[in-house]
Specification:
mainly beta; Methylamine Dehydrogenase, Chain H; four-stranded antiparallel sheet; 33 strands; globular
Length: 347
């Protein structure tokens, strides 16, 4: 199927705007296991999917390419250091960051290295790719734009805080949160400042862009909608605990998951809360918004799907181990990775 129907899911939260939206229709509860694979260590990033292959980054320092239909291993790549960065796919290349501070470009058909580039600090976030450039940040505060084909640095900036936030790109600007308590809007062409917005604490989760707004949560529990052009505050919502999960957007609604254990459905236009989900104890993974449904993972092993308009629970799935990654939902299967290194394909 074409990428437009999101059988393919090639980057964290689906697109460069990090909308977390998937036009796949709501599906019944997955009750049958198609396959299960056990990896040697935990998986703390999200899988990606392209052309019938599921790619999973593992803490054992290996990247795994699995046949999406059978779970059969197609290849593995030894990255030389633990992986917690969600891979990103562009054409024949797969980009992934390592705890050794390297961004790796891997030929996704052969599983061989094309280039590597050092950013100096651990890379926990996922790369974003646009117009032949790769944008990525690291825990030493360095944020860089690299040539997709060669890995050559085009420009780099050092922000004041750790970068674990996955960047968003829309139009001519790149948006990234930082441990310095700011959302930064940088010019994609040269890395210069377009604007900065101060928050009450670190911005650890990724940003999203929708409706002319930059959407970001911070560890002070405040979720903010900022004007994408100016950084001006348009509205904000206060959760009970810190927000480290990226948001998802679908059908004019923003879905915000917090460490207070609740999924909050907010109106994109003004931040009014439409509904609130049940207490899942704590949520650190980004939700996934589909056509009429939203799916969220509790840290302690429960995945729930809700009607996106009403919050009515559609189904529950319990995998019995902690979940720190966002699943992939396609017409054929639900793919889920757990902290114990278990990879499931369910239908």
């Amino acid at each position: 199927m074409a990428m437009d129907d999101r059988t393919d899911w090639t980057t964290l939260l689906g697109d460069a705007a990090r909308s977390g939206g998937n036009p796949a229709a709501a599906r019944p509860a997955p009750t049958d296991m198609i396959w299960r694979v056990t990896l040697p260590d935990s998986v703390r990033s999200s899988p990606v999917l392209a052309d019938g292959t599921l790619y999973v980054a593992c803490r054992d320092a290996r990247l795994y390419a699995l046949d999406a239909a059978t779970g059969r291993e197609r290849w593995t790549f030894d990255a030389g250091a633990p992986l917690r960065s969600t891979p990103a796919i562009s054409g024949p290349l797969l980009l992934v960051g390592t705890d050794a501070g390297e961004l790796l470009a891997i030929d996704r058909t052969a599983g061989t290295l094309r280039w590597r580039a050092g950013l100096g600090g651990e890379i926990w976030s996922s790369a974003v790719i646009r117009d032949g450039l790769v944008f990525a940040g690291s825990t030493n505060g360095r944020f860089a734009a690299l040539a997709l084909e060669t890995g050559q640095t085009r420009w780099q900036r050092t922000l004041d805080g750790r970068i674990s936030s996955t960047a968003t790109i829309a139009g001519d600007l790149v948006y990234v949160g930082s441990g310095d308590g700011r959302v930064h809007a940088l010019r994609a062409v040269d890395g210069g400042d377009a604007w900065q917005h101060e928050t009450g604490d670190a911005v650890a989760g990724g940003t999203a862009v929708a409706g002319g707004l930059v959407l970001a949560g911070s560890e002070d529990g405040t979720f903010r909608a900022l004007d994408a052009a100016t950084g001006a505050l348009r509205w904000q919502f206060q959760a009970d605990f810190g927000i480290i999960a990226s948001p998802a957007v679908g059908g004019g609604t923003v879905f915000v998951a917090s460490r207070d254990g609740f999924l909050h459905a907010l109106r994109l236009a003004d931040g009014t809360r439409i509904w609130q989900g049940p207490d899942l104890r704590t949520i650190t993974a980004a939700p996934l918004a589909g056509d009429g449904f939203v799916c969220v993972q509790g840290f302690y092993g429960v995945t729930k799907a809700f009607d996106s308009a009403t919050g009515t629970e559609l189904w529950t799935l319990s995998l019995g181990s902690s979940l720190q990654s966002t699943p992939i939902v396609t017409p054929e299967a639900v793919y889920q990775a757990t902290d114990r290194g278990l990879i499931y394909a369910l239908r």
